[in-house]
Amino acid sequence: MNKEEYLKDLIEIKYGNVKSFSEHAGLKYTTVRSILERGVLNAKVENVIKICDALGIKPEDILKVEDSIINDTNKKMIQLNPDRQQNVYNYADNQLKEQNSKVVNLPLVGKSAANPAELTYGDVEIEHDDFTDVPHGADTAIRIQGDSMEPLIHDGQIIFYHQQEEVENGEIAIVEIDGDGVTCKQIYYDYTSDEVILRSINKKYEPRHVKDDQVRIIGKVIL
């Protein structure tokens, strides 16, 4: 299989035909047909880049085309009906995303109760685990217990935070309440009464007012 056949196969797999692909890529139909017939190496660089962008490949991928498992797969793909082609494409796409996802090893802290009364404060249990799609700046993971932060954060969900001792008004934080556990809440400050207001996202829970000397910010939640 040559470079032009490789591109034509990809176009048919992803777009069905050259005309539909041309419209998506922002190129004239005759331009794409000419490239496929006369050769990629004879085409304008900017047109090749547009074709590659629309197909989700890099220009250098075309130069590496040779008989291989990729070409065998393409030949088989063309013989499948559209539904089965989509299944194969979805699987390959998921595999690529997993491959390209950066794996980060972070400490996973026991649990944070969305309702702090559900969790008695004690020694924090910490283990390490591998995570993908970790938000930039996060350095710790924690599993949420309870529904007070729904629909933004769900019961049992693992979220990430950056360890720090201060957060701004309205930011979501992991906090320790003296004698009443660790919780995840939206933080507001009432400077006139020296209180910290712990607010839930779930409207069925009332805001909780706690003296500022009874609250310790553990970290800022990063979503």
Automatic annotation (TrEMBL):
Keyword presence, Cell membrane: no
Pfam hit, one: HTH_26
UniProt KW DNA-binding keyword: yes
InterPro entries, A to Z: Cro/C1-type_HTH, Lambda_DNA-bd_dom_sf, LexA-like, LexA/Signal_pep-like_sf, Peptidase_S24_S26A/B/C
Domain HTH cro/C1-type: 36-62
GO molecular function: DNA binding
Alphabetical UniProt keywords: DNA-binding, Transcription, Transcription regulation
Protein name as catalogued: LexA family transcriptional regulator
